[in-house]
Amino acid sequence: MKGSQLSSIVKISEEMILRQALNMYHGQNRSAPDYRGAMRLFQGALLKTNAVANFYLGRMFERGLGVKRNGNRACIYYDVSSKLGFLPAKFELAEFHYLGRVIGRKDKRLGLKLFRESAKEGYEPSIERLMIMKLLAAITT
């Protein structure tokens, strides 16, 4: 088997694992979500290379879905996902820092920087958040 064929098979396998993990997270065929099962799949082969898997792991730790709620771990997974280019993760990370959500301290500068970066890349929620911040600043001055 050639290297390109093997990498294609690996990519297909990763996509299948991700699809199964997302089905477990959201609940398949109107069944209840299986957060623990989804976590096992997200943390398996996908952890180091898949932005979506890291995003959902962050969401699970942020909300305490199938695991004990842990904002610091959520922030780590959002950071990995963000660095892999997933804009929703960059938005969540921006909120964590800007609002001091869960991690216990605010870093408004970093949060604003992340909002601006994702807005520059066209991520609509970040664009909207920056517009709201600008309007609030105009009202309060």
Structure commentary:
The protein has helices at 3-26, 35-43, 51-63, 71-83, 87-99, 108-120, 124-140. With 141 residues, it is mostly helical. The radius of gyration is 17 Å and the shape is elongated. 72% of the residues lie in helices and 0% in strands. The protein is built from 7 helices and no strands. Helix 2 crosses helix 3, helix 5 packs antiparallel against helix 6 (108-120) and helix 6 crosses helix 7. The protein has one domain (3-140): Serine Threonine Protein Phosphatase 5, Tetratricopeptide repeat, CATH 1.25.40.10. The chain starts with a helix and ends with a helix. The mean pLDDT is 87.
CATH architecture: Alpha Horseshoe
Helix content: over 70%
- From the helix content, strand content and strand pairing, which structural class follows? mainly alpha
* Helix run count: 7
CATH superfamily: Tetratricopeptide repeat domain
CATH topology: Serine Threonine Protein Phosphatase 5, Tetratricopeptide repeat
Q: Compute the gyration radius: what is it?
A: 17 Å
Query: What number of domains?
Result: 1
N-to-C CA distance: 67 Å
Main pleated sheet: none
List its salient traits.
141 residues; Serine Threonine Protein Phosphatase 5, Tetratricopeptide repeat; elongated
Short description:
The protein contains seven helices and no strands.
Write the topology of this structure.
Elements: H1 3-26, H2 35-43, H3 51-63, H4 71-83, H5 87-99, H6 108-120, H7 124-140
Helix pairs in contact: 1-2, 2-3, 3-4, 4-5, 5-6, 6-7
